[in-house]
Amino acid sequence: MSVGQTSTPKVAGKQVPRQPAAKGRTYFYAIISDVQSCTYGDFGIDGRKVYSIPVGRVAAVVSDSPGGVIRPERSRLAAHQTVLKKLMAETTPLPMSFGILADSPEAVRKMLSRNQQALLQQLRRVAGRVEMGLRVTWDVPNIFEYFVNTHPELRLVRDRFLGGHGEATQEQKIEVGRMFDHVLNEDREAYIDKVEGILTPRCTEIERNKCRNEREVMNLACLVERAAMSRFESGVFEAAQQFDNNFAFDYNGPWAPHSFVEIDLEL
């Protein structure tokens, strides 16, 4: 078992659809709880000035669109994250995905007015909290052979269909693959339950993200109180001690709470 911390940026958020850029539009970074307009500095997309548009008790943090298509170039992704990072130092924002645009500042004001109560509810949900990620993987040379060696039922099916001298049929290969997927997902569920049992008292919420490949055991997003960061980290190490050296634990953050924003905005 190994435990590591990474700082890979997350560009996520599922609350609004992307729209193609057009000259004169307004680029959208986040929503915050605020009633006064504010200018943050010239560190937005393409060096544009970042400022807020307040309506009621909330405000949108934006910059003017540079025009054309907002392509996810490294410098622009970094600028988007820089804005969120600076906001995180002062408050807990509702982060937007990269590339979200409104037709104009007035369109932003109308959206804020129309969604005022829903936005306030979401801001209360994440207030004083950050998102932490936890990714656990099987750290083995060959994931299939590892499962064959640790699951007698899979080894039996493998030997029956693939252990002979003749060429296995397509149906037999499919059956072995089906059994492999079955035991893989069963183990994942059991391991996630074990880790969540340790982390749940240390988190406000936990979201299970889809595993990206066969080696991934779990990919969790955890909403954690800022004041409880050390408790969360100690929980990760406590959970890791329940696993042997065939598993690697990697936690990352803190991030703006992308995984815990559940609003649909029409811009």
Give a summary of the structure in a few sentences.
With 267 residues, this protein is α+β, with helices and mostly antiparallel strands. It is 36% helix and 25% strand. It has a domain at 10-127.
Derived structural class: alpha+beta
Our estimate of the beta-strand percent is 25-35%
Q: Give a count of the beta strands, DSSP E runs of length 2 or more.
A: 11
State the end-to-end distance.
46 Å
Major pleated sheet: 6 strands, antiparallel
Low-confidence stretches: 7-22
State the assembly state of the protein chains.
single chain
Order of helices and strands: EEEEEHEEHHEHHHEEHE
| Overall 3D shape | elongated
Q: How much helical structure, as a percent, in the residues?
A: 25-40%
Number of helices: 7
What's the mean pLDDT score?
Answer: 89
Radius of gyration: 23 Å
What is the topology?
Blueprint: E1 2-6, E2 26-33, E3 39-41, E4 50-55, E5 58-64, H1 74-88, E6 94-95, E7 101-102, H2 105-114, H3 116-126, E8 129-138, H4 143-150, H5 152-162, H6 170-199, E9 205-209, E10 216-225, H7 229-240, E11 247-255
Parallel strand pairs: 1-11
Antiparallel strand pairs: 2-5, 2-6, 2-7, 3-4, 4-5, 8-10, 8-11, 9-10
